[in-house]
Amino acid sequence: MQRTFSYRRQEVLQEPMITEVFNRWPALFGVAEVNWEFMRITTVPLISKFIGQLDRYTHDLMKLFRAKGGTVGQKIRTIMAPTATCQNIALTRDCVVRSLSIYLNEDMETLVKEYMDSECAEAEWGIEHTTMGIYVTRVEGADLGAEPADVGVVLEGVELPESVFPCSDFSVPADPLKRRL
After folding, report:
1. CB contact at 8 A, 111 and 101
2. Dihedral of alpha carbons 173, 48, 166, 133, sign
3. What is the pLDDT of residues 79-119, one digit of tens each?
C-alpha cells in the first residue's frame, strides 16, 4: 500500500463513487489501514489522538455546557442528563459530542440517525438515501445508558463494512440505526 500511495491519491482526487474505491482498494476500508493512511498524511494517530483530546477536554466542555442558557442550554441539559446517573465513558463521550454539535448550532439529525430495532423498513430507506452519516439502532424499551444494538457508517447510500468502524474498539458519537436489518 505504501508503494501505491501517490497513485491511489490521484484516483481518489478524481472523486469516484465509494463503491468503486472499495472494489479497487478494499484494504483502505480496514481500521488499521485508515489509521495508517491518516498517520502517513498528518503524522498523527487518528483514533488515539481524537479520543485522547476528547477525554482531555470533556470536563471543560461539560462546564461550558452547564453555563449555557436559553433553549440551546435546555437541549444540551436534556442530552447530558444520562451522564449524571451513569459513569460510562462511552456514554459521556457520546453526550459531549452531541452537545457540542448543538452548542455550535449544527444539526446533529443530519449526521446521526437514530432508529429503534422495530423500524427496519424506515432504517433501510434512510440508509439508501444518506450521502454521509452515522446510524444507530437501539433496542425498543431499553434505557438511555444501554449499548446500541448496532452502529454503522453510511457513505453514498452504502454501509461501510464493520472492519472500518468497529464500535467495540472505541466509542464514537453514535445514534441508533441498524446495520443488519
Report:
1. yes
2. positive
3. 999 988 888 898 899 899 989 989 998 877 778 888 888 88
SS (H, E, C) 103-146: HCCCCHHHHEEEEECCCHHHHHHHHHCCCEEEEEEECCCCCCCC
pTM listed for this prediction: 0.64
**β-pair partners for 115:** 137
**pLDDT by residue (tens digit) across 152-161?**
888 888 887 6
Distance CA 79, CA 45 (A): 29
Per DSSP bridges, beta strands 150-155 and 132-138 are antiparallel
CB atoms closer than 10 angstroms to residue 38: 16
Cell of 122: 424506515
Assigned C-alpha cell, 69: 442558557
DSSP the chain: --TTHHHHHHHHHT---HHHHHHH-GGGGSHHHHHHHHHHHHSS-HHHHHHHHHHHHHHHHHHHHHH--HHHHHHHHHHHTHHHH---HHHHHHHHHHHHHHHTT--HHHHEEEEETT-HHHHHHHHHT-SEEEEEEE-TT--TTSPPSEEEEEETTEEPPTTTS-TTTS------B-S--
